[in-house]
Amino acid sequence: MNSEIKKVLVSGASIAGPTLAFWLAKYGFDVTIVERSKSIRLGGQNLDVRGAGRAIARMMGIENEILAANTGEIGLQFVSSDNKVQAAFPSDGADSFTSEAEILRGDLVNILYNSTKDNVKYIFGKYITAVDQSDNKIKATYSDGESEVFDLLIAADGVRSTTRQLIFGDESQIKFVGLYNAWYTIPKKETDTKWARWYTAPGSRVMMIRPDNHGTVRASFSFLSSEPGYQKLSNSEQKKILKEKLSGAGWEAVRLAEEIEKNDDVYFDGISQVHAPRWFNGRAGMIGDAAYCPTPLTGMGTTLAIVGAYLLAGELSRHNKHEDAFAAYEKRMRPFVEDIQRLPPGVPWLAHPKSKFGVAVVNTVAGILASSPVKKISKLFSSKEEDVTKDKIELPDFRHQ
Fold it and tell me: Does the keyword Oxidoreductase feature in the UniProt annotation (predicted)?
C-alpha cells in the first residue's frame, strides 16, 4: 500500500472508473466514485472484452460472468435492401466480427458495479463543478454545493468529460472523424435473428441491428457528415436529423425511424478521438475515453479503458509519490494508445459509400472475404486465442510485488 496516498475520487461510473476503483480498493486505497446519473446506466450497445482487457477481467474474477452475459450473437451478416445475405461472418470464424466475450455495455457496467459496491463508496446524482488543488490535497466541489477533500482525483467520465475541462481547460483536442452514430434499443420482431445484420445504403449511411440477451434488439445508424455540431442540438432536433437521414435508405429504415420517434433513450454523438498532450496535472488526471478515446471504429475502447485503469492503479500502488506513478503509467500506456488510435486508411469513408456502385463494391468485397477459399487462407494466419501479447502491452502482476 502506498503510504502517501490514501483517498481517491473517481469521476464516472461506466467502465474505466469502476475498474480503477476495483484495483485501488484491492491495494488498500479509500475510493469514492461520483456519477452524474441517479443510478448506474444500464443502456448501451455491444462491447467486446478482448486480449489484455480479458486477461484483466480474468484477474478480477469476472471473466466467467462476462461470458455468461454474452449477447447470443452468432455472427455478422451483410444484407441487401431486400434482406438477402450478401456475406456472413460466423462468430466461430477466424475473421469474425463477433467476440466470444460480446456483452452489452450495461451488463458489463452492472458486473463492475457489483464487484466494487462493497469496497467503494458511490455517490449518484452529482457531478464535479470545481477543482481546487494545493501541494498536498485536492478539493472537489459537487453540483449540490458540497465539497470534499481527497489525495487524488481521476476523471473517467467519457469523451465529453466535464471534469477534464476543470482539470486541463481546452488543451485536449477532440478530433471529429466525420461520422455520426445513433444507438438505441428497439422491440424484437420475427424477422430478427441471432445474427447481427449490417446494411449499407447509398448516401454514406449504414444501419445495424444486433441481438441482445434481454428480449430486445440493439439498433444503430451511422452517416458521414462534415457538420461538426449535431451532438449539441436538442433531443428533438437530433431526432429530426436522424429521421431525415434515414428517409429513403431502404431495408429497415422506416422501422428505425419510427422507433427513434418512440424512444426516450437514443444516444447520438459525433464519433471523435481524444488527443491530450498530457493526462495528469498535479494531483488530478484522467483515463479511458476522457483521456484517449480511440472511437468505436477501432473496437478497442473497452480494452483501453480496462487496461488503463489496471495499469494506473498498479503504478499508484507501487510508487510512494503520485508524480512517479503518473510518469510510469504514461510511459507504459501512451505508445499502446497511439498505436490503437491510428485508424486504417479509408476509415470510416470506405464503409460508408455515397453511390449505389459503392454499396455494391462493399457487399462484393464482404462476400469475397466471407467465401470459403479466403476463410481457409485466413485461418492459416489468424488465431482465436485471446493472446495478451497481440495487444502489444505488458501487464505486470502488481499483486505480487
Answer: yes
